């Protein structure tokens, strides 16, 4: 979906339409942007940005509290539309899903036709726009969905797949964040063609197990299937920092922001967790985790911050700087009955068909 939370708010409140708006946060308090309208994005505002920074970029910015119950209802409407065409639907977030329409209920020959019909139905029934990416596997569909937003439709045909990937800037690859992109640049890898030129041995040497994934996607290969009704294992958030954190005050501040994002995601999905895991990656790429199982299920922001801070304080930093912090809640309430939703880590808000 296109700027989903913000678009719902603009749909339901005429005074917000055409104006820069963000969902979440507050201009006078700590907090982060959960979603930004396209009008706000023109000012350089994006999800996960601290509210005070967003307010400074656009003094006329409207802050709206999230209404997750409404977003869940609209998401359910959209999934009902999906089910008219296929039951093989994998929800990624409230505003994103993969669909396998190889075999579909209406025996439509082309996936692009189904995508157009779904987009039209979403617009008619919810008054919201969606962007679709169509291709032969998950990775390519994901990349296609980011090419023509908002309200777009991009198809990557099998015969065009390798050329598309080869011409793509490495930082545009789904799953390659700022830190990994910078490392690839240092190795002389700037495009998909550069990545494709590297051997499997070289990629695994520099990137470990994920090097095998990079080797495959550089060749437009992705054998992951669309998995409906998977069991959710955890919900969390993490941030890689463009500049390593060296101040303890900075670290604790960022930890609070990540805790807030984690709490919001638990709220979005109406679940709570018992086991909290803190993840830290140092500037030398050493990574450690610390976990604590709590007496009861929770999604309380105070408990998440207190528990994460206690785990953080138990670690001897020895003047080391930090490049990544993350918090995840696992051992989720009613996990066996709940469809998995692996939420994006401030990377994207798109819809894939």
UniProtKB/TrEMBL annotation:
Under HAMAP family, the record lists: DNApol_IV (MF_01113)
Look up the record and name the cofactor or cofactors this protein needs.
Answer: Mg(2+)
User: Reaction(s) catalyzed by this protein?
Assistant: DNA(n) + a 2'-deoxyribonucleoside 5'-triphosphate = DNA(n+1) + diphosphate
Q: How does it assemble?
A: Monomer.
Q: Which Gene3D superfamilies match?
A: 3.30.70.270, 3.40.1170.60, 5' to 3' exonuclease, C-terminal subdomain, DNA polymerase, Y-family, little finger domain
What is the organism of origin for this protein?
Nostoc punctiforme FACHB-252
Query: Mind telling me what this protein is named?
Result: DNA polymerase IV
Q: Return the annotated site residues (Substrate discrimination).
A: 5
């Amino acid at each position: 979906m296109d700027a989903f939370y913000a678009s719902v708010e603009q749909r339901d409140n005429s005074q917000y339409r055409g104006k820069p708006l963000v969902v979440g946060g507050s201009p006078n308090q700590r907090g982060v942007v959960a979603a930004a309208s396209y009008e706000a994005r023109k000012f350089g505002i994006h999800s996960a940005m601290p509210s005070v920074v967003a307010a400074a970029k656009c003094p006329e910015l409207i802050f709206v509290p999230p209404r997750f119950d409404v977003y869940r209802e609209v998401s359910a409407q959209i999934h009902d539309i999906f089910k008219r065409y296929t039951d093989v639907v994998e929800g990624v977030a409230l505003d994103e899903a993969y669909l396998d329409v190889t075999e579909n209920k209406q025996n439509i020959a082309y996936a692009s036709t189904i995508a157009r019909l779904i987009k039209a139905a979403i617009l008619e029934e919810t008054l919201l726009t969606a962007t679709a990416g169509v291709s032969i596997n998950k990775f390519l569909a994901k990349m296609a969905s980011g090419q023509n937003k908002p309200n777009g439709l991009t198809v990557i045909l099998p015969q065009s797949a390798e050329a598309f990937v080869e011409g793509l800037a490495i930082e545009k690859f789904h799953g390659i964040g700022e830190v990994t992109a910078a490392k690839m640049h240092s190795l002389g890898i700037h495009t998909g063609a550069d990545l494709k030129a590297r051997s499997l041995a070289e990629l695994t040497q520099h990137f470990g197990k994920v090097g095998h994934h990079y080797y495959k996607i550089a060749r437009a290969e992705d054998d992951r299937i669309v998995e409906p009704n998977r069991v959710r294992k955890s919900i969390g958030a993490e941030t890689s920092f463009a500049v390593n954190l060296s101040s303890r005050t900075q670290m604790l501040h960022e930890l609070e922001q990540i805790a807030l994002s984690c709490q919001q995601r638990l709220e979005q999905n109406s679940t709570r967790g018992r086991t909290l895991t803190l993840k830290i990656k140092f500037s030398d790429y050493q990574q450690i985790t610390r976990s604590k199982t709590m007496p009861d299920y929770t999604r309380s922001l105070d408990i998440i911050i207190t528990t994460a801070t206690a785990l953080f304080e138990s670690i001897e930093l020895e003047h080391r700087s930090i490049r990544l912090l993350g918090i995840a809640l696992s051992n989720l309430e009613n996990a066996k009955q709940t469809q998995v939703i692996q939420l994006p880590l401030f990377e994207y808000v798109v819809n894939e068909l």
